[in-house]
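Journal club prep, notes for RB
We'll compare a predicted complex against what the paper describes. Inputs for the succinic acid case:
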Amino acid sequence: MNDYPLSEEQVDYYQTNGFVALPDVLDEIELQDLRVATDEILATQHSGEIERSSGNPEYEQIFVQKVNLWRINEAIGRHVLNTRIAEIARRLARVDAVRLWHDHLLTKMPGDGSKQTPWHQDRPYWPMDGLGQLSCWMALDDVDESNGCMWFVPRSQTVGLLEPINLVSPQDIFGLVPEEDGFKATPVSVPLFAGNCTFHNGLTFHHAGPNTTDRPRRAMVTIYTPDGTGFNGNGHVVTDPLGLHEGDKLDGELFPILATK
Ligand code: SIN
Ligand code: NI
C-alpha cells in the first residue's frame, strides 16, 4: 500500500499544536478486522487477558484499558506494527526512527459505567527519558462529544513535562501550568469518523468525556517513541517484568523499530 499522503502542513500543525486529526487512515477491511479483534478481546477478559490489563482496577472506572495486545492478537498485531502508520508518527515527530512503546485498547462501552478521562499529559506516566513520544488514537467507532471523543489543548505541549496527574482523583492540570508561561488553555474537541485518528504528543493536555450514548466507543491506541529512548527506572506495567536498569535503551523485541528515514 502507498504511504499515507501526509502533507507538510499537517506536520507543521502537529508540531505547533501538539496534535493533529487525520482522515481515512484505515480502510474498511482494516477497520473491520480491528473491530472483530477488539470484540474478541473484550469477550475474553475473564481469562488469560487479565495480566494484559492496566493492572490498576481504579483506572477501569475511567476506561477499560488493555495493554500490549499486539503480542496476543494477530489482527491487532498487524495494526500496531503497521509501518504505514508508524511512518506518519515518525514524520510528525520529525525524528529519524520510531520504536513501538506499547499499544492499549481503551473502551467506553454503553452502560459500563466508565467516566470521563480527566485532563492529563501521557508522558509523566512513562518510565523513560527524552521527549518526542506520540500516540495514535484510532477511532473504531464514530466518536463525538456524546460518546467520549478526544479533547486537546492546542500548544499545551510547550508547557513541558509536568508531574503525573492522579487519574482517579485528579487535581487540576491547568493549575500546574506556571503562570509566567502566559499560557491560555482553550480546549478543542475532535470528533472523528471510524478509521480516522488523532496523533498527540505525550506532553499535550488531553481528555475524553464519558460515553453517554448507547453506541460503543472503542479506541485502539499505539504509542511510539523515538529510537534511542532510555529507561528511567520508574515502575510501569510494560517494563516491570523486564528487569531493566536505569539508562538501558528501550529496544529489543518488545520495542521494535517501526519506521526509519
Ligand atoms: C481516552 O481514550 O479516554 C483517553 C485516551 C488517552 O488518555 O490517551
Ligand atoms: Ni492519555
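Talking point for the session: The radius of gyration is 17 Å.
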